[in-house]
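Continuing the batch. This is chain 6 of the set; chains 1 through 5 are on the previous pages. Same settings as before, nothing changed between runs. Recording input and output for traceability.
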Amino acid sequence: MRLVYTQYTLLLYGFQTWSLTEKDKTKIQSCQRRMMRKIMGISLKGKIPNVTMYQLAATKDITHAAIKTKWKWGGHVA
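Output for chain 6:
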């Protein structure tokens, strides 16, 4: 889905070199959800759960993909 690719490029540029903290994970997840809501036209007033929103967009939480990418890059560098 195009939505996922756009989010990855915007949110995870240069991610492999970051030291990821829980605060950073929360901010990235929050930003992803805001972007999804905006693109899909879902307002916060609709009170749609995050799980349902991920299912509608046919995507997963971006931090899982980010960590996987980071480990892949680490294996490449080592």
